[in-house]
Every structure is written in C-alpha cells, then in structure tokens.
Amino acid sequence: MSNVRLHDKTFRPFIEYDKIEEAIDRVAARINEDYQGSKDAPVLLCVLNGSILFTAELMKRLTFKCEIVCIKLTSYVGIKSTGEVRDVIGMTGSVEGKRVIIVEDIVDSGRTIENLVRIMEANGATETKICTMLMKPGCYKLDKKLDYVAMEIPDDFIVGFGLDYDGLGRNIKDIYVLDSDMKYYILFGPPGAGKGTQAAGMAERFNLCHISTGDLLRGEMAKGSELGLKAKALIEAGELVPDEIVEGMIENKFDTVKDVSGFLLDGFPRTIAQAEALDRMLAKKGESVSGVVSLMIPDEMIKERIKHRAAIEGRADDASDETISNRIKTYHDKTEPLVDYYKKAGAYNEIDGTGTIDEVRDRIALLMERI
Ligand code: AP5
Ligand code: MG
To answer: Where are the alpha helices (DSSP H) in 83-225?
Structure first.
C-alpha cells in the first residue's frame, strides 16, 4: 500500500482491508448473537454517505430478518467535524414501532449519535442501538455506551471504506490516515556535489517540488530579465546573488506550488541569513525544516566533476578554473557555516557523496525515508 493524494492532501495507509473485514466479522457475530431468533425485523439505519460500505458489509453477515432505512444528515465540510448538530435531509423509510440499529461509519464526539437517537425516538422507534465501524474514544463526550464498536482509533482524520475527504476517497477499500506533515528537505553540499543530479529522482519518489535556485537564476538569465541581468555577473564570478533575490524566489514557489507532499531545496539556503529567512517563512505556515541531506565530496572531486560537466552543459560558471575556485571558496566561507546552524537545530544529516550516482542515490533515499 502506498500513499494516496486526495485534493491537496496526502494520506498514508492505516488499516488494511483484511483487518477491516475481520473487525466486521466480529461485530456482526455479536449482533447475530443478540438478535438471533427475534420475531420482528429490526431496521439497520444506514447513515449516508459514510456508512454505505460498512452497512453493506455488515448486513450481508447478519443472519436474522432485518430491514434497511437510509438517513441523510447535513454534512461536515473539510477535515474537521463542526461539532454542530446536523439536520435531517431525508429518510427512506419508517422506523415506527421498530427496533433500530444505527449503523455509523465513525463516531467521534458522539453529537451526531445523540441527535440520531433523538430522531429515532421522535419517529416512533421502540429501541435504538448503535453500531459503528470506527470510534475515537479520545473524543467521545457522551455517557451512553456504544453497543457495537468494530474498531477504535486515535483522533486522526481518516478516509477510505466509505469515509471521504471533501467527496473523494470513499471507494478506497483500505483505510488511510491524513499525513499532515509537509516535508521540507534541504539538499546541501558544495558545487558539483551531485545535488541537481539526485534531486529529480528524489522529487519524483517522494512527490516533492524540486527548487534549484541555480536553475531558477539561469532561467532568468536565459530570458534576459532584469533579475537575470543582475545575477549574471555575480554568478559568472562565482559569487552569491543577494539573499533577498533568492528568498523571494523560494517564497513565491511555496505560495504557488500545490499538490505536493513537500519541497526539496537545492542550492538554498546558502548563507546564515537565508537559513534564518527560510525558518521565518516556514514558521508562518506552522512548519519547519524536516531535515538537511548534506552530500559531501572532497574539493578535488568538485573540480573534476565540474570540468566534466562543463564539456556537456556549457554552464558559464563552469568555464574557468578561476570561477570554479571562487565558487569553492564562497562555499567554504559563506555556506559551510550552515553545517553548524543545522547541527544545532538537530536537522543535519551527512552522506558520502563519492561513489557512483546510483550508490549516492540509494544513500539519499534511505536517509530521506527516515526523516
Ligand atoms: P547552483 O546552480 O546551485 O550551483 P552549485 O551549488 O555550485 O551546484 P552545482 O549545480 O554546480 O552542483 P550540483 O551539486 O547540482 O552538482 P550536479 O548534480 O550538477 O548555483 C549556481 C550559482 O547561482 C551560484 O554560484 C550562485 O552565484 C547562484 N546561486 C544559486 N543559489 C543561490 C543562493 N541560494 N544564494 C545566492 N546565490 C545563489 O553534478 C555535477 C556534475 O557531476 C554533473 O556533471 C554530474 O553528472 C556529475 N556527478 C554527479 N554525481 C556524480 C557521481 N556520484 N559520480 C560521478 N559524477 C557525478
Ligand atoms: Mg545544481
């Protein structure tokens, strides 16, 4: 089972279909025991839309005569229950003079259940019991004990097996839980360490947006924009462009890129001031740097790799020994202090950047999975 995306959110596997079925078997067996031999035909009250799948699975396991009535209440919006009493939109049959088993997909505070019990009484039900597929004991506020609970879960937002996130996810046969953590990875390292080489694969693997400030700046240079012209001389001298330029680029991406599980920053931050600006940008969103993946290679290898790339890509800042040496110097003077900055923050992880591209890729993937 892998993660699923619904609208703007990622959900990770939580309860497998087999386990759901086993739980339904158990709860159905208890209901059968309690209702076996009854002369009436109790009503299963399916609370639409969430409990469609559960009601169907439950009902086909019941061995006594029973009926089904569906009820639709006004719905929740988004990922939080409003806590408000929901009104009845409609009911597909009568419960007058009948015993009712309310079949819910999930019970959290219990307000809906309390409301439903009242509605059943008002509609002439002679007895009301409650059966729920899932229950959040940490949220439950009522004194009334639920009669049949298939599974208990913590207070997380879940989808699948009838449960949705804004209309989607009901058809998924396993249950998934909201993976609210956006990831903010920094791919760090000296020039030529392999950041760009490895970033694309990692972005795809972890559903991340790869942001290379170097690529963005080269894009501006190619367009001949004002920003590009400003950056050109600095880049070709192996110097850094002003902090506010790259910070603006990053913030713009954070604000506009949607439908990803996070960001992979390549070549940013490069100064302590940029790292502090990044912390501020993330704090505004209630987020923080998830981890730094630092690719380390010796200075000699930097030169070798960059010279090799110069022949293939023709990057202006790869063209002369002087620029390459200045980039390495700029890295040691201005960027390397970030190692301590992120060590202090407990976010720093170092990886050996030597070896083949595949070897380095595997080391990075293993580390990112842990972060
Ligand atoms: P940027 O584009 O970020 O350059 P850089 O940091 O110097 O890094 P490179 O892109 O040169 O290296 P890389 O680690 O991506 O290595 P690659 O994968 O290509 O920045 C350029 C300039 O823009 C800066 O100097 C600065 O002026 C400005 N700038 C950018 N961000 C800024 C910021 N935040 N603030 C201020 N200014 C900023 O690999 C290199 C070569 O090695 C490739 O040919 C590759 O095929 C090869 N290779 C990779 N891995 C291996 C391997 N394992 N074995 C053998 N070869 C390999
Ligand atoms: Mg690069």
So the answer is: 111-122, 195-205, 213-223
